[in-house]
Amino acid sequence: MASRGIKDQVAIVGMGCTPFGEHWDKSVEDMLVESSTAAYESAGIDQDDVDAYWFGTLGSGVSGLTLSRALKIDYKPVTRVENMCATGSEAFRNACYAVASGAYDLVAAVGVEKLKDNGMSGLTGTSIPDDGTRPDLTAPAMFSLLAPAYSKKYGVDEEEMKDVLTRIAWKNHYNGARNPRAQFRKEVGKETICNAPLIAGQLGIFDCSGVSDGSAAAIICRAEDAHKYTDNPLYVKALAFAAGPAAGPIDPDYDYTTFNEVVASVADAYAQAGVTDPRSEIAMAEVHDCFTPTELVLMEDLGFAERGLGWKEVLAGTFDLDGDLPVNPDGGLKSFGHPIGASGLRMLFECWLQLRQEAPQDRQIASVADAGKTLGMTHNLGGAPGECVSFVSIVGSELG
Amino acid sequence: MQNGANDRGILAYGAYLPYYRLEKAAITAALGSGGGRGTRSVASYDEDATSMAVEACRLTLRDSDVTPDSVYFASATPPYLDKTNANAIHAALDLPSRVFAGDVGGSPRSVNAALRSALDASRPTLVVASDVRSGRPGSSDEANTGDAAVAWLIGSEEDGPVIASWRGGASATAEFLDRWRQPEWNYSRVWEERFGEHAYLPLVTEAAEAAFKECQIDPADVDVVVLTGLHARAVRGAARAAGVEGAKIASDLTDVVGNTGTPHAGLILSSVLDNASPDTTIMVIHLADGVDVGFYTTTPSIEQYQSDRPLEMQLEGATSPLDYNTFLTWRGMLDREPPRRPDPESPAAPPSLRSQRWKYAFVGSKDRSSGAIHLPPQRVSVRGGAVDEMEPVPMADVEATVVTFTIDRLAYSLSPPVIAVVIDFDGGGRFQCQLTDANPDDVKIGDRVAMTFRRLGTANGIHNYFWKARPVAKP
To answer: What domains are there in chain A, each with its CATH number?
Structure first.
């Protein structure tokens, strides 16, 4: 038994990504058509060239028909995928395996979410009949539990913690301001972030990702076929996923300063990709910054910072656009919002742009252009501290 | 029918006062009328007559080995009609299914129906009375009523030490219009005050005389009188009508708690018993659509009896004054704009039955192989993965410590913000739940908490009962 991975067996040869935002004038179908046709065009293919589809959405439709009806797919396999906030990444992961298995030559992974049609604030859960005893916390409240636990464990006082969280939000908005596809395209001052109304615990409104609509898509083929479609494919180096006992909320050993699922999934990803020193080898990472404390904890869980020192690295600018290891150069969930089924593929889209040096000049990261690094990471998680699912991919612009 | 003396009496009792108090002056300040001096007790937004009854029963049974044969729930403000409210209490106490549970209700006098039945029975019986009372804004009922629950475990020496023997009593009944309420009304109406006095006082005299005679008790032998009823004017004249000295009347708590209706005689009796020495004869006179009179005499066993949370402690432990607008909101008198969030969902019947001991009694599971405690109960252990090696572990009475917490300002609540805590129980077990009866500004990691039975919400007419944490009362 082993997780062997499929390093360099499959490649991404085309991608599409809609702008994310409050698309009052666009339906789920509209967004699916836009992201898919953009991806076809990017790969230089027609829809009929695609052999099978993996379609991710949490709640904007059910079954493969949501995609096949919108695109008028000509009787091909369409698998609907759901894995909480990692849904888009899961569509991609399973599509890659289908190609690696040899079952299909060319497949598409498409993710979409329409959050702005329900009229609610924040994300809303799906309702499964139960006994009414589940803790009914909102997402910001669940992730805000990380902040006091981290502060206490590492002796970071409340004010310093607020600065750290503010720095993360400020950085992601700075990056998003340079991204035409982002929901929020303005820099936000630290003062504004810091003094915003509180939503949950220490988290103000700017510590939370937005709520938006969006869709993204990727076209995948075997690595040896990649150059039929593009001169600059991205090769899949690692695909890892972890779901655990979800016992944090009932296990006194869990201390709310880490995601065990992230630690497990990233270790698998590094092993698959042969990465031994992520801090120096990875050019950029798109991580799941649903709330600012999540990004802080992820910097340590993903091995980008020593345990207990992530907050110092954040303040030092390590993860800034011009830092050693740019994190969320596209602006992250912070600037894009989190249309659930689309987010994982949106993260991959930034790797697609940055590693191929197609990002706009004011956002192109130096680690690729100047330092010649070739690896990008996407990290996507769903759930809550102590009970989540975690996805990690590593993609690269070179074979080997 | 007379209630004759037998060898039965009170084995244990418990009174529960909710945490909140409303300054009556706040009513006057807001409305320019109504209100008055003093305070009234207020059931929190997550409490009702049933949840408060559970708390009173837990206080009553906590130090007792007796399993009651029946549970009677008396309330003029029952959360459900058609569905027996006593079953939720039965479930919360984790009583065996062979124990009977039933409601007596509708009027404050129903508590006496339950007590007479318990005192006449041959097996130990748990009686609990509980009301959440108010009236229209500015009314006398709004200012002068209150919320509370009281429970009694009634039995004989065979069951355990009787701390107060039942000496017997008598009643007088007549049909007259004093106070009435349609089931769908959230306030009561009363006839002219002086008429009630006219109707009640002769009944007081009749019942008292009959009781003294039947029980062969001389008025001079009475040490303390518990005198109450929702008709304040008639109650004021009742000592004289009963032939008892005004000086013997126990403080009726109305200045602080308000008149709590169905449980109120029991509330005063509890405060008397909290401080009573042996051989104290207590006369209870309850004016409620007639008059019920009864006598209890404390036994030497009362000296060893220690109420778990004496009323005095609950009176002192009350919070700083509640905002009048909040009070109106909690009582459904002020329809406030909800957050832009989905409506609360109601629990489904089949999963609620499957998890009855968890949902109602807070019984988790303990892995025999590793000792790990699971809340909620699991089949596969989080330690070592043993399958079906679990035994039930009751956790409702175990205290816990706050590990981390947050203030959720987005979640729907009648009393935002929601305080959520992660707590570790003494001896093992972790749980994440709401913290209630607490000020968001005061919560700290390391705080000590205890579990309390609450109504999380109501949707589709279904009350969702479950447990929350509350700060442990400081001694």
So the answer is: 10-116+213-231 (3.40.47.10), 139-196+235-396 (3.40.47.10)
